[in-house]
């Protein structure tokens, strides 16, 4: 280790084994120390599991169109989301936001104007991150 290092990870240790680590300092060709600590490595069954898959958005589709509503459905090929947000502009051009629970994979958007084309954007929220959008147009 160089003199500026304050941490080190020791690799390739055996599970469920006790180790003693000795740290020596070297200053002007003199060895100082050691400072020692004992540690027991985790058993194989105690090792940290792999991180869950990062969430990702798949496809967004529109169905069940009526004169004033549309059903939006989407896929999540990996991971999970805390929530979703649907964004679109209403008939007057004002931005609208529709929050959706993270377990949902579809929602009906009500109060739409007949014969109007809408662009819907779906965002996935995971932790403090917003992923997306995936989009679909519907009339």
From TrEMBL:
<dbReference type="Pfam" id="PF00041">
    <property type="entry name" value="fn3"/>
</dbReference>
<dbReference type="InterPro" id="IPR003961">
    <property type="entry name" value="FN3_dom"/>
</dbReference>
<feature type="domain" description="Fibronectin type-III">
    <location>
        <begin position="56"/>
        <end position="139"/>
    </location>
</feature>
<dbReference type="GO" id="GO:0030155">
    <property type="term" value="P:regulation of cell adhesion"/>
</dbReference>
<protein>
    <recommendedName>
        <fullName>Fibronectin type-III domain-containing protein</fullName>
    </recommendedName>
</protein>
<dbReference type="InterPro" id="IPR013783">
    <property type="entry name" value="Ig-like_fold"/>
</dbReference>
<dbReference type="InterPro" id="IPR036116">
    <property type="entry name" value="FN3_sf"/>
</dbReference>
<dbReference type="InterPro" id="IPR050991">
    <property type="entry name" value="ECM_Regulatory_Proteins"/>
</dbReference>
<keyword id="KW-0677">Repeat</keyword>
<dbReference type="GO" id="GO:0031175">
    <property type="term" value="P:neuron projection development"/>
</dbReference>
<feature type="region of interest" description="Disordered">
    <location>
        <begin position="39"/>
        <end position="61"/>
    </location>
</feature>
<dbReference type="GO" id="GO:0005615">
    <property type="term" value="C:extracellular space"/>
</dbReference>
